[in-house]
From TrEMBL:
Bifunctional glycosyltransferase with both alpha-1,3-xylosyltransferase and beta-1,3-glucuronyltransferase activities involved in the maturation of alpha-dystroglycan (DAG1) by glycosylation leading to DAG1 binding to laminin G-like domain-containing extracellular proteins with high affinity and in a phosphorylated-O-mannosyl trisaccharide dependent manner. Elongates the glucuronyl-beta-1,4-xylose-beta disaccharide primer structure by adding repeating units [-3-Xylose-alpha-1,3-GlcA-beta-1-] to produce a heteropolysaccharide. Supports the maturation of DAG1 more effectively than LARGE1. This is LARG2 glucuronyltransferase. One of its GO terms (molecular function) is glucuronosyltransferase activity. It comes from Callipepla squamata. The lineage of its organism: Eukaryota, Metazoa, Chordata, Craniata, Vertebrata. In the C-terminal section; belongs to the glycosyltransferase 49 family. In the N-terminal section; belongs to the glycosyltransferase 8 family.
Amino acid sequence: MLCSWRVKLKLLLATITLAVLLSWLYLFMGSLEYGRFLLLPPCLGEQPSRDVEREALASQVRRVEEENQQLRMQLGQVQAEGSDGSPQGGASAEDGPPIGGERNNRTACPKQRMVHKCELLHVAIVCAGHNASRDVVTLVKSILFHRKNPLHFHFITDSVAHQILQTLFQSWMVPSIHPEVSWIPNKHYSGIYGLMKLTLTKALPSNLSKVIVLDTDITFATDIAELWAVFGKFSEKQVIGLVENQSDWYLGNLWKNHKPWPALGRGFNTGVILLLLDRLRRLGWEQMWRLTAERELMSMLSTSLADQDIFNAVIKQNPALVYRLPCFWNVQLSDHTRSEQCYTEVSDLKVIHWNSPKKLRVKNKHVEFFRNLYLTFLEYDGNLLRRELFGCASLPSPPSDQLQQALEELDEDDPCYDFRRQHLTQHRVHLFFLQYEFLALPNPTDVTLVAQLSMDRLQMLEAICKHWAGPISLALYMSDAEAQQFLRYAQASEVLSARRNVAYHIVYKEGQFYPINLLRNVALSNTQTPYVFLTDIDFLPMYGLYDYLRNSIQQLELPHRKAALIVPAFETLHYRLTFPKSKAELLSMLDMGSLYTFRYHVWPKGHAPTDYAKWRTATVPYRVAWQPDFEPYVVVRRDCPKYDQRFVGFGWNKVSHIMELDAQEYELLVLPNAFMIHMPHAPSFDISKFRLSAGYRGCLQTLREEFHQDLSRRYGAAALKYLTAERNL
């Protein structure tokens, strides 16, 4: 641009002037070992004192330095503005003149449009399925890490991603973020989510004037506000901002008979798009792209690159619509990429686009840098991104406000403050972390195994899957980094990767206690079957238990009665166990001392009411009465009471749940031919704290008393027996 060269010329002259003045100042002030001045500038004369001469010259140098600095800032600004709209390298002769009337901008130096720190930025992301939902998290982390503005995310999803992202962002509770998850039913737009970007003028709110549209496989390395500012550089005719495609795909020379869709030169990549929605609506965008697509599909039959092909075909016919973004806003790491021509230093890059099917395994000489940048956000603790934007009015968030008020009401001098604080902690939740096949119509007697675990119990998953063929719902308590380790573990496991009826729900770590009942509730709430088997991850169910439970539910007519079916629990102290194939084998091992009734030697009250002596000879289900501290593993309807989440860490987390089942008058029925076996493991951190800390045990007693009071308020006189039983103990 001409204005750029004018600034460069001024800067060059100023630099020469500064260099001359500095040389004179050095010669004037510098001395050799004899202390004689070598040269005096003729313009200063010979008579004035040397101090006055030195000060005058120094003042002139400072003034020129200031002018020089201002010119450098102006030049940097002009270069940034010029690069944003200038054609990129590698464009073919077919490009013709600069796209979108760039020549019209060459007569004046446009001012850089600054984004106000409190301006709300809108970002749209199309997301469908489990995998894309995971990718969205990494993308959003990279945006939140750099952002300084409030953001409004518009997620256009299928039904699967809708549930995942809705829960994720509600539980994330990032200040000054408004996530709007819109589920577009499959009957709209033929259910092809790869074309949804074309429909954003209709899918997004009609009063939304502009939006940044991103693919899910994008990583930001800068503040997204810098990209938002580019909207201010669009000419009156430009409506779409895109980066040139960085491969030869649209040139049609990748292989013999390769026939891509029509495009302007190399075409454009739609991983990053700036859309002026109000202008597009006035242009009749919906009809424009549909007519173009219908015309091209008569010869092309289908798209190869989904919406990107249609965007390029429209731009081919209407080149004035596009504003050419500089390539660093979409560095494409595809196969056969030419992205290395886009930058001289990787530090110059702003957006990385993993648009190769190989993703992190793509070949590029700088791939290690790109991969490390991506992994940084992949494993970054999302809790750290819950930071306020000071100086901006927060977007309304009633759940966040209520939580903050509850936290402020806590008494920090309360000995049990940490327990109460943990109860109020808002954990991020990522449902259905891996592929899961939802049931179209569950069997009326079907049952889901429900459990929770942390990273140190991961080795139990394969064994449980071998013992239980039915659906499983698991809540996993992990950090962001551990969740990625689990993902790699599950994908590498032949047993786990073969199952599509195991739902993994990640609850991200926060706080000092293990939120065991929160985890149970997450797993329980996201089951689909009418019945659930509430167990713990350390137990292996007997072979065939899934079928046995379904038959028992039908035979006992559970749909017409309120009952909890008890599966008797046993344990082994051996890490290697020949698992019994029948009740007879289990009784034999029990008699030989290789198996025991569960916790008989440390906590007999927990399972003694099961009446193991009666179970040995029982052939039909039998009823047992509730007793204090009873905590069996049960099969109940999915709509059973939730676990009380005030109980965190070790102690009373299951006892309180069974007590509430009894308060609601559930029958407790022991199944005569069912069993489960607890496998040995190292003590958890929380049980160690329980054993060693009198304060821990005291707080647990306080929580028990408060639970009794709440139970009495909900169930009245029927709950008095629990308080009486506690006092008798």
